[in-house]
Amino acid sequence: MLGVVILLLMMATAFMGYVLPWGQMSFWGATVITNLFSAIPLVGDWIVHLLWGGFAVDNPTLNRFFALHYLMPFILVAVIVLHLVALHQHGSNNPLGIDKEGGPQDFDPIPSVLYGQGSVRLSVFLVILFAVVFFAAESLRRAGQLHPGQPAGDAGGDRAGMVLPAFYAILRSTPDILFIPAKLAGVLAMFGAIATLFVLPWLDTSPVRSGKFRPIFRIFFWLLAADCLLLGWVGGQPVSTLTLTLGRLGEVWYFLHFLIILPILGKFERPLPLPTSIAQAVLKGGAHAVPAGARMEKP
Description:
The chain has 299 residues and is mainly alpha-helical.
């Protein structure tokens, strides 16, 4: 749950940073997203005016977003600290999803040197990130950001760029649902797609926590990954009959996967046999393999 909170804070920080260049795409992105809150009954318009600092997106809005964009990383660091506290208090999972407490898996850790390449991967990622940020940032600027934001213009002839296009695809693809208008239904669907992640531990009813031993689950996992890529592509395209149809199909499959398939699959799927120890599965029974139930001192 703390991880999902971190995701939400990252989304908010990214969106507010997207507005700061104050180009045409930034202006219309802020207009579209802030107007979504007007769909909330009773207090929606009040929230929109509070975000705007007036009756339209203007300089007060930019000042507020700049202050929040500056403040959010500090809140993010605080939640990360809570995340680390929870990690040290309750422990973490392992790639195989095998419980180390109780049974033959008790006191069966893997030498940390086997996963030491994680710091190398992080270093490579940071080098690429810094290279783009400091030397190639302008190459990512779209035409719509070359003109100052103003209500009289448009996004510069370029398709609207969104910080998280997959959620934007869910937002704009949702039609009217019974007595709920499309705007409010889209807002509920977008936030519902995120809220679903909060209850994911209860939606996945399988006692096996690793897809390595669940062959049917792996198929649906890759279908979900393809669906997320489809929604991301749809969210970055202009509105058309094709993109709306694909967006609605992707939205239906997203909720179908989490709310229907996962609970049912966990009840009826027969997982493969679990290894007797983490070391046996990782080290493949080599010279350094640890017998099941053997104790290993933590470094």
